[in-house]
Design brief:
The protein has nine helices and 14 strands. The protein is an alpha/beta fold and 357 residues long. The chain has two domains: 236 residues, 3-Layer(aba) Sandwich (Aspartate Aminotransferase, domain 2), CATH 3.40.640.10; 102 residues, Aspartate Aminotransferase, domain 1.
Length: 357
């Protein structure tokens, strides 16, 4: 069987260690004789997984003690509603940097006054807006730190005069984060830290309970804090695999170590895109994502797109087709994507270049 290099945008590539341990747990979870997908979430064996997973999040991101860590269902799309339900009292400001940022803003508009302080829609979201001020009279400012469809990323933690909330679905754990600068960080695990089915929330507890509206029980983050993420049955298998993924990350040196590796992988691929006359990057250079590398055929070579796609597939590249809304190519090089795969894609691009000189 030929080697497959997985660049899919999500569900993400996972470390083999996490996959192997998940397979064993499907046979027998912690010596209970019961598979992990059938274990009661009220057993001490399962509660130990929840405790370990919370501890790993806290250690890997240096999360302060006054922040709670939650593992819920619904995905980041449900998270958009959690944000507005729990934080929007009068008005909120959003940075519009892509499709998911627009969707987050839409949910807030459904509950109150919310608007975009800046947008990069004018050039199909190929850059991160910079010439704007965060208004001081809003309940919170919301950002999407990495934009998977367009390949742009906010690389540093910004200072904000109001509570800062971030959807970090696709770059969480890829770089060090100063959690203390945020009121809440949330996202779907399936882009970088686990399989689909679980959503993480890192929230400063004392900022909750400030809105006057009634919050439905399941949409009130305090419900899930009080229930230790088990007010209802949690997505046990997804949490188990996330825990195994974080154990792998800690074992290789943690977030600082993976950030170095991620930058090396991204620099390698972007250097080839910039060098190779057949290809062209689509994101502004200063805002290029280290998680999702987006590119197209260069001017004059557009007719080669399908040929390159087939060429790359034959050489084991999978998941490099760009999002249906923008086309082109996208290589998602999340934490568990090995440098070997990036090198293989670069070699593939160079080989294709030689055929069309």
């Amino acid at each position: 069987m030929k080697k497959v290099h997985n660049f899919t945008a999500g569900p993400c590539i996972l470390p083999q260690q996490a996959i192997d341990n998940a397979i064993e747990a499907l046979k027998d979870f912690k010596g209970t004789g019961v598979p992990v997908i059938s274990i009661s979430h009220r057993t001490k064996e399962w509660e130990s997984v929840m405790d370990e997973c919370r501890t790993l999040w806290r250690e890997l991101l240096n999360i302060p003690e006054d922040y709670e860590i939650l593992f819920l269902g619904g995905g980041a799309s449900m998270g958009f509603l959690y944000v507005a339900m729990n934080f929007l009292e009068n008005k909120a400001a959003y940075l519009e940097t892509g499709v998911w940022a627009k969707k987050a803003l839409k949910e807030a508009k459904g509950l109150g006054s919310a608007y975009a302080v800046a947008s990069s829609a004018d050039t199909v979201f190929n850059y991160i807006p910079k010439d704007y001020e965060i208004p001081a009279d809003v309940d919170y400012f919301h950002i999407t730190t990495n934009n998977t469809i367009y390949g742009t990323e906010i690389h540093e933690d910004m200072d904000s005069p109001v509570p800062l909330i971030a959807d970090m679905s696709s770059d969480i754990m890829s770089r060090p984060v100063d959690v203390s600068k945020y009121a809440m960080i949330y996202g779907g695990a399936q882009k970088n830290v686990g399989p689909a089915g679980v959503t993480f929330f890192i929230v400063k507890k004392d900022l909750l309970g400030k809105v006057s509206r009634y919050i439905p029980t399941m949409l009130d983050l305090r419900t899930h804090i009080d229930g230790a993420s088990m007010f209802n049955t949690p997505p046990v298998f997804s949490i188990f695999v996330m825990n195994e993924t974080l154990k792998w990350l800690k074992g290789i040196g943690g977030v600082e170590a993976i950030h170095k590796i991620n930058r090396e992988k991204a620099q390698l691929l972007y250097a080839e895109i910039d060098r190779n006359p057949l290809f062209k990057g689509t994101a502004a250079v200063e805002d290029r994502s280290i998680m999702n590398v987006c590119f197209v055929m260069a001017e004059g070579y557009e007719s080669l797109q399908d040929e390159f796609m087939a060429f790359a597939k034959e050489r084991g590249m999978t998941g490099i087709k760009g999002h249906r809304s923008v086309g082109g190519f996208r290589a998602s090089i999340y934490n568990a994507c090995p440098k070997e795969s990036v090198e293989a894609l670069v070699a593939c691009m160079q080989e294709f270049e030689q055929l069309h000189k």
